[in-house]
Automatic annotation (TrEMBL):
GO cellular component: a single term: nuclear lumen
Name of the protein this chain belongs to: Transportin-1
Gene Ontology biological process terms from the UniProt entry: protein import into nucleus
Naturally occurring in which organism (per UniProt): Timema shepardi (Walking stick)
Homology family: Belongs to the importin beta family. Importin beta-2 subfamily.
Subcellular location field: Cytoplasm; Nucleus
InterPro entries: ARM-like, ARM-type_fold, Importin_beta
The organism's taxonomic lineage, starting at the top: Eukaryota, Metazoa, Ecdysozoa, Arthropoda, Hexapoda
Biased composition annotated in UniProt, kind: Acidic residues: 37-46, 72-84
Region annotation (Disordered) ranges: 37-84
Keyword terms of this UniProt record: Cytoplasm, Nucleus, Protein transport, Repeat, Transport
Length: 411
């Protein structure tokens, strides 16, 4: 029944009485967004993560992502995480379903919805009851993509209000505010920095270090979105940003640590060579190398760490040289181990399991980052290793995505 809400709401719009039906649907979705919120959550950063709460993670090749974004003019849209951010993957309740439906309605009818929505938002956003206020913030985020043009006149008032909501005493209000602000980050970056970007960046970074794990997750994800939008506009604030993200290593547990890797990798992609300063390198690299040394070769947490290091190596360029050789040799070892396991499985499938080829792909992608960032400096390492033989074996494998490291070697 819950899943039928968006279907019937959109089906109703195609009746002859479309305008009235549309208004009824919007009101219904807004009301449903207020429902099913079951209390606030306490500070829980000291409570260990349960393994079942951590979503399975799969590596996505850097070259595949770049190729996809170039062909489509944009990257895949992952910014609806606030609608689906509960701990359980199966917890698709009426509230979240209604928020998703509101997102769809906004994308279909755009500014036509605002005469109905704005009065509802004014009533809910400033409500004394925190549950209703939280639902208004969620609804505001849900309509961001579809109704952005019509919402712009209201944002000079709403963005400062939302930034203040990042300090709300209720953790769920803080968490959903992070997501909603990320949905309007493109507008924020386009405005005078002192008015919006700097206050938002400052408060989001405070929430990155929040005492509640859900708020940490939402803030880290929102900050990654802000990094993508702001790019080199963040360069003047890099010291402060890095100090905060590095401090998060000492606070974060397993689940949010994976998100922290993504935020750091996105920062490196966004600011590029501006990260190549001794002070920044001395801040950033020790915790990353510490994690690198702790993780075993068969640990899938290597995926996000190696993805992060790939972006960092490309950005740091020659600044990554002190770390290059051990990183290079481990990547080569990962490729070799995967290929050997593949051969063993092919020859004796009953005795040996098939390898997870993502270990090889993520290692090759990091080698690609080293090649891109260090250019000629990596040639000595290539000559003194068996990487060429391993790459020849890789090219015999029908992998769906060739890596840029293979291309770099051939050119």
């Amino acid at each position: 029944m819950v899943l039928a809400v968006p279907y019937f709401s959109l089906r109703e719009e195609r009746t002859n009485d479309g305008k009235c039906a549309r208004e009824r649907s919007v009101r219904m979705m807004a009301i449903r967004v207020e429902e099913s919120l079951e209390g606030d959550v306490e500070d829980d950063e000291m409570i260990p993560d349960r393994e079942e709460d951590i979503r399975p993670r799969f590596h996505k090749s850097r070259t595949h992502t770049i190729k996809h974004s170039e062909e489509n003019g944009e990257e895949e849209d992952d910014d609806d995480d606030g609608i689906d951010d509960d701990n359980s993957l199966s917890d698709w309740n009426l509230r979240k379903c209604s928020a998703a439906a509101l997102d769809v309605l906004a994308n279909v009818f755009r500014e036509e919805l605002l005469p109905v929505l704005v009065p509802i938002l004014k009533e809910t956003l400033f409500h004394q009851e925190w549950e209703i206020k939280e639902s208004g913030i969620l609804a505001l985020g849900a309509i961001a993509e579809g109704c952005m043009t019509g919402m712009i006149p209201h944002l000079t008032e709403l963005i400062p209000y939302l930034i203040n909501c990042l300090s709300d005493k209720k953790a769920l209000v803080r968490a959903i505010t992070c997501w909603t602000l990320s949905r309007y980050s493109h507008w924020v970056v386009s405005q005078p920095h002192d008015n919006y970007l700097k206050p938002l960046m400052t408060e989001l970074l405070k929430r990155v270090l929040d005492g509640n794990k859900r708020v940490q997750e939402a803030a880290c994800s929102a900050f990654a979105t802000l990094e993508e939008e702001a790019c080199t506009e963040l360069v003047p604030y890099l010291g402060f940003i890095l100090e905060t993200l590095v401090f998060a290593f000492s606070k974060y547990q397993h689940k949010n640590l994976l998100i922290l890797y993504d935020a750091i990798g996105t920062l490196a992609d966004s600011v590029g060579h501006h990260l190549n300063k001794p002070d920044y390198i001395n801040l950033l690299m020790p915790p990353l190398i510490q994690k690198w040394n702790i993780l075993k070769d068969e640990d899938k947490d290597l995926f996000p760490l190696l993805e992060c290091l790939s972006s960092v190596a490309t950005a740091l360029q020659s600044g990554f040289l002190p770390y290059c050789e051990p990183v290079y040799r481990r990547c080569v070892s990962l490729v070799e181990q995967t290929l050997n396991q593949h051969i063993a499985n092919t020859q004796n499938p009953e005795q040996f399991e098939a390898p997870d080829k993502d270990f090889m792909i993520v290692a090759l992608d990091l080698l690609s980052g080293l090649a891109e960032g260090l250019d000629g400096h990596i040639e000595k390492l290539v000559i003194n290793s068996n990487i060429m033989q391993l790459l020849y074996q890789c090219m015999q494998d029908p992998m769906p995505e060739p890596t840029s490291f293979l291309y770099w070697v051939r050119t």
